[in-house]
Amino acid sequence: MFRKEYQKHLRPKDFKFSARFLQSFEHLLRFESFSESQKIFELDRIAPPFTYRLRIGRNLSGRIYPTAARTTVGVPTKIFKEFLIHTLNIDPIFLETKGFPTRIPWGEGNLFFGDEDHLRWEVLSPTISELFRQIENSPLEKLEDQSLFDYDPEFGYVTSCPTNAGSGMKVSFKLSMKLWRNRKNTSFKIPDFLEFYPENSSEFAVFYLKNFTFSQKNFFLNLVYYLALQVELAF
C-alpha cells in the first residue's frame, strides 16, 4: 500500500522547458542563449513581481512521522535536540526554550518543526539572485546524507505527503492574483509540469515545482522568465 501510494503520486524527476516548446516567443529564445549568471542578472533587471521560496523536507531515519505521533515532532525531544546540535550544528541556545521551538534560523533560511515532516528548511526571497545566494550560502549538504534521513532507493527522500517525496525540494514563486488576471496574454498555457494554487483567499497565485533539483536550475530560470513575460510591463 505504501509503495503504491508513492508510485502513484511521485512527481517526475526531470522537467525541461525551453522556447522550442512554444511558438512566437522570440524573447525567451534570446534569454535561453544567455549564461546562467546572465539569466539571473536579466531577471533581476526586469524585476518581475514574484516572491520566491525554496523548501526542503526531511524525516529522520526510522522515526515516526509527526502526523502519526503524539509528540510535537515525532522524535523524542532529547534525541532530536542532539541531532540538531551535533549533526546540523544548531546553536544550543535556540533549544533552551520551555517547549520545543517551531522555528530556528539555520544557514540563510529557517528550519521549521512540528509540521507534517520532522524538519523543513525554507528560504524566502524577493529576487532570483538573492534566492540562489541564500541557497549557496547555506550548509544544505548536511541535508543530503541518506543514512540520516528516511530514504528509499526508488522514491528518494520519503516525506509524509507522497507528492513531496524524491528530492524533498519544492521551489515556488507567487504574485498578486490581480496582476495575473491582468496579464497581457490571457490565452497562454501553463506548462503541464507546473502546479498552481490560489493563496490567502485568492489574493495570490502560487506556481510551484515539486521534486526540484539544483541540476534543473537553468530550466527553472527559463520558466520564471516565461511567466515574467506575461506580467512584465517593461517590455
TrEMBL record:
GO molecular function per UniProt: ATP binding; kinase activity
Q: Does the keyword Protein biosynthesis apply?
A: no
- Keyword annotations from UniProtKB, A to Z: ATP-binding, Kinase, Nucleotide-binding, Transferase
Coiled-coil zones: none
Ranges where the Phosphagen kinase C-terminal domain occurs: 114-176
Q: Does the keyword Amino-acid biosynthesis apply?
A: no
Pfam families registered for this protein in UniProt: ATP-gua_Ptrans
- InterPro entries membership: ATP-guanido_PTrfase_cat (IPR022414), Gln_synth/guanido_kin_cat_dom (IPR014746)
For this entry, the protein name equals ATP:guanido phosphotransferase, C-terminal catalytic domain protein
Organism field: Leptospira borgpetersenii serovar Hardjo-bovis str. Sponselee
Q: What is the lineage of its organism?
A: Bacteria, Pseudomonadati, Spirochaetota, Spirochaetia, Leptospirales
